[in-house]
Amino acid sequence: MADLRIRPALAAAATVLLLAALAAVPMLATDFQLFRFTNVLIYALALVGLNLLVGYNGQISLGHGAFYAIGAYATALLVAHADLAHWLAVPLGGLLCLVLGFLFSLPVLRLQTMHLAMATFAFGAVLPTVAKWKGVEQWTGGTQGLALDEPTVPFGLALRFDQWIYLLALFVLVVCFWMTWQLLRGRVGRAVIALRDHPIAAQSMGVHAVLYKATIFGLSAMLVGLAGGLAALSMRFVAPGMFGLFLSFGFLIGIAVGGLGALSGALYGAVCLQFIFLVVGASASSLRTSNTPLVYGVVLIIFLCLFPNGIAGLVRTGWAALRRRWAGRSGSGHPLPGRIG
């Protein structure tokens, strides 16, 4: 019993130390390294949102990069044209994605899984073209994109803006990760997973399939939109070419590599995505070359063949083996409680 009380305390202490170490990164990293670390946090936030939809609810989206673009453009437009504080523009962009995602999903959720995937694919393909439309070009900058002046760091903090954006991205990721975890471990999470695994049984028990799925779709779009808003501030630039279909495919690669149905998989997948970007070229824009499909395809095939449960599943299996070995050496005969992932 004493061990049952000690383990949560140790886990909490480890979490606090990890967050403290992450918060200290801006003081130690170079500008280039800090930009990469910020990207990892932003990708992790987007992958939490997509994993919520695909991994936990079983809905396939091939166009979630569109909500990333909406969040980025909404944030950029509010900062550049409405002169709104950037730290207020990001949640407003996320709220817009929540509403649009919920409304978009209501009609398409009545379709079969493959038709839903095709509908999201079309949405992701069309949206970048909208930003080039002559009717909105004066606000979005059209094909040339929209550049942002470097905003002022709020609250008089003695930080560079790049350092502040990293800390803001870390804060948003931690809050969203905790809220998603709380959501999934409660009644809503049980209903969502039941709709994924046993939809007929769940509906017979009174679970409103369309309402729950639309809500999860909206929340997923909101998280991806928040990530897009943070990306716009980090790069201080948005353009239609940044939000092609390969962005959506990259997110799917990220959750497949990190681990479907495991929130920690978003963190592993974000690190892997950044690694892929570095391998292909010096920046994320390099992935829009002809080598992009080849790299994505090779990574996906390798992981699906060797690690079907992703890195999160690999870590979970390895941790369970260590716990069994530890329990065997201690002579207790019972594995210690707990689970990673």
From TrEMBL:
Subcellular location(s): the record lists: Cell membrane
One family name in Pfam for this protein: BPD_transp_2
Q: Where are the transmembrane segments?
A: 33-53, 65-82, 88-109, 164-184, 205-231, 237-260, 293-315
Q: Record's superkingdom?
A: Bacteria
Q: What is this protein called?
A: Branched-chain amino acid ABC transporter permease
The record describes its membrane topology as:
Multi-pass membrane protein
Gene Ontology MF: a single term: branched-chain amino acid transmembrane transporter activity
State the UniProt keywords alphabetically.
Cell membrane, Membrane, Transmembrane, Transmembrane helix
Q: Which GO terms describe its cellular component?
A: plasma membrane
Recorded source organism is Pseudaquabacterium pictum
